[in-house]
Amino acid sequence: MNTRTKTDFTPVDQDLYAKAFQLLDPDPAPEPAAPAASAAPAPVPSVLPAAPPVRLTGPVEKTLTDALAILDTHGWARFTLVHPEGARCSIGALRAAAGARNAAYCDAGNLLLDEARRQHGKKWETIPSWNDSHTGAQVRSVWEAAIRRAHHMNI
Q: Is 28 helix (H, G, I), strand (E, B) or coil?
């Protein structure tokens, strides 16, 4: 059995290696400050401040938010999916925002209808029947509440 002792690795610059580890796990003791020239840029801190956590928007929240933006842009309609001038009913906006009848579309529709029932009674069977029986302000209130719920549910 032959054991190979020579490698083809490039030698490591030990100072660069030490600096990289210092950036990853800084020593709590501060380094001595070097005299700064008047035109020299400010030194970059070795530890960056922690960024706030990033919250991703879930597919249901995004679908609802996009649909409400469509209603805001093109207008809200009753008794028609899409008005000739571009306004849409709630289900028309939801379909346009989702792009397809996918899981986000179904979940967003269920959440919207559930919120409509919370605010306007349990009798509503469908989004179109609820949409056509209420004012624009009432419909908007349900949309905004559904978006808040999706946000809090992180969906």
A: coil
CA distances in angstroms from 150 to 31, 50, 70, 139, 144, listed in the order given: 48, 27, 18, 17, 10
Contact 77, 83 (CB under 8 A): yes
* pTM of the shown model: 0.65
93 neighbors 68 (Cβ within 8 angstroms): yes
Length of the chain: 155
**What are 123-150's pLDDT values in tens digits?**
999 999 999 999 999 999 999 999 999 9
126 token code pair: 């469908």
Which pair of structure tokens corresponds to residue 70? Answer: 């469509």
Residues 46-56 as b/e (b if ≥16 CB within 10 A, e otherwise) read eeeeeeeeeee
